[in-house]
Specification:
single chain, about 260 residues, alpha/beta, 9 strands, binds adenosine-5'-triphosphate, binds magnesium ion
Length: about 260
């Protein structure tokens, strides 16, 4: 094995999420009407990383998201989450991966606390523990006193907070979020973003966060990957608390250029 290959394997074995030479073709390859939504994508997400994936509509973000979540299979290439295939080992991921969708996807016939308990029920947690855990997460997200409210009685921001509580309550190591705050007003979204970053960091999670918004990507990510149609990486940048305001401004400008190109 070459040194380069050995180091690549080392990186992927240790990565929380690994996409190796992944392509996704909708329809029969080569046939009329087939579409290559992802083209030979290589992407490793380290444990504890918060990756923001940014790209214009239709560039393949949700397709990548669905492959990581094990909802779709790649046409070719390798997808691994914690070293396992999320599509064929779907059951092994119960409780290991939590998803926050663009819409809150709460069950309207269940109260806030019953919605948060849902993931814990699927994990067969003892009933008393489920209720306690769900209550604690609702309180952490500022929803103490609303445990028994039904979704229709909550505002959009409150419902989205219930869905975040539901994702965190399962204590999954990996969080996948597909534009979870895009339907909210900017000030509510800003507060939830800050809360989300704090929770992910405090609990040592790995997160993949999909967004259309450059500002949101800069707030959420410690790494940003910008995709261009068909889901190829056009820019990949990492930063941390030491990154200066000037550098951030340069990064913002570069992302704008890449998206406009
Ligand atoms: N099931 C499917 N069958 C055929 N084509 C599909 C399917 N799903 C996605 N596509 C195509 O693949 C491309 C990427 O779609 P995808 O939903 O991944 O984009 P996206 O980046 O998530 O866009 P948005 O920002 O609008 O959510 C689009 O051209 C879309 O039409
Ligand atoms: Mg999408």
């Amino acid at each position: 094995m070459t040194a380069a290959l050995a180091s690549e394997n080392l990186a992927s074995a240790d990565a929380a999420i690994h996409l190796g030479n992944v392509s996704k073709v909708f329809g029969k390859e080569g046939a009329d009407g087939s579409y290559r939504a992802v083209d030979r994508l290589n992407l490793d997400v380290a444990r504890g990383q918060m990756l923001a994936i940014l790209g214009k509509t239709g560039c393949g973000k949700s397709t990548i998201f669905n492959m990581i979540a094990g909802l779709t299979e790649p046409t070719s290439g390798t997808v691994r989450v914690s070293g396992k295939n999320p599509f064929s080992d779907f059951d092994a991921f119960r409780g290991k991966m939590a998803i926050v969708f663009q819409s809150d996807r709460l069950l309207p016939w269940r109260t806030a606390i019953q919605n948060v308990q849902l993931g814990l029920e699927m994990l067969d947690a003892p009933p008393a523990d489920r209720k306690d855990t769900a209550r604690q997460w609702l309180i952490k997200l500022g929803l103490g006193g609303h445990e028994d409210d039904f979704p229709h009685a909550l505002s959009g921001g409150m419902r989205q907070r219930v869905s975040i509580a539901r994702a965190f309550a399962t204590n999954a190591d990996i969080l996948l979020c597909d534009e979870p705050f895009s339907a909210l007003d900017e000030s509510t979204a800003g507060k939830l973003r800050a809360e989300f970053v704090r929770l992910v960091k405090e609990n040592g999670k790995t997160a993949v966060f999909i967004t259309h918004s450059i500002s949101e990507a800069l707030e959420i990510g410690d790494r940003i990957v910008v995709l261009k149609r068909p889901a190829m990486i056009a820019y990949d940048v990492s930063f941390n608390t030491d990154t200066s305001a000037e550098e951030r401004t340069l990064i913002r400008g570069r992302i704008g250029e890449v998206l406009a190109a």
